[in-house]
C-alpha cells in the first residue's frame, strides 16, 4: 500500500532516502550487499526509496549499518538548473 502524499509517518528516513517497506517476488538484488532481495515463496523484508528507488534488505537499517549511500533524489527527472548558468539572447527582427 502506497502511503498518502505528504504522509511521512510510514517512511523510514535515512541519508535523504524515504524508504517504504516492500517484498519482492521477482529477481532483485540488494544494492548494499548484492545478495538476493527476492524469493518466490518467502521473500526477506526489504526497503525501497520512493525517491531514487534504491533497494536494500531491511536488516541493514535495523542493524544501523552504514552501507547505504546518500539519496540522489528522483531518478529520471531533471534537476532544476541554476538560471545563472543560462544565457538568454533576444534578437530584434
UniProtKB/TrEMBL annotation:
The keyword Metal-binding applies. Residues 16-71 form the Phorbol-ester/DAG-type domain. It holds the Pfam family C1_1. GO terms for molecular function: metal ion binding. InterPro entries: C1-like_sf (IPR046349), PKC_DAG/PE (IPR002219). This is Phorbol-ester/DAG-type domain-containing protein. Residues 74-93 are annotated as: Disordered. Residues 74-87 have a biased composition (Basic and acidic residues). SUPFAM superfamilies: Cysteine-rich domain (SSF57889). Keywords: Metal-binding, Zinc. PROSITE patterns: ZF_DAG_PE_2. It comes from the Eukaryota.
Amino acid at each position: 500500500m502506497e502511503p498518502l502524499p505528504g504522509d511521512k509517518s510510514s517512511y523510514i528516513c535515512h541519508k535523504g532516502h524515504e524508504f517504504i517497506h516492500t517484498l519482492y517476488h521477482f529477481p532483485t538484488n540488494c544494492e548494499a550487499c548484492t545478495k538476493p532481495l527476492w524469493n518466490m515463496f518467502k521473500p526477506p523484508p526489504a526497503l525501497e526509496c520512493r525517491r531514487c528507488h534504491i533497494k536494500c534488505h531491511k536488516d541493514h537499517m535495523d542493524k544501523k549499518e552504514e552501507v547505504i549511500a546518500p539519496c540522489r533524489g528522483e531518478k529520471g527527472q531533471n534537476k532544476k538548473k541554476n538560471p545563472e548558468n543560462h544565457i538568454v539572447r533576444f534578437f530584434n527582427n
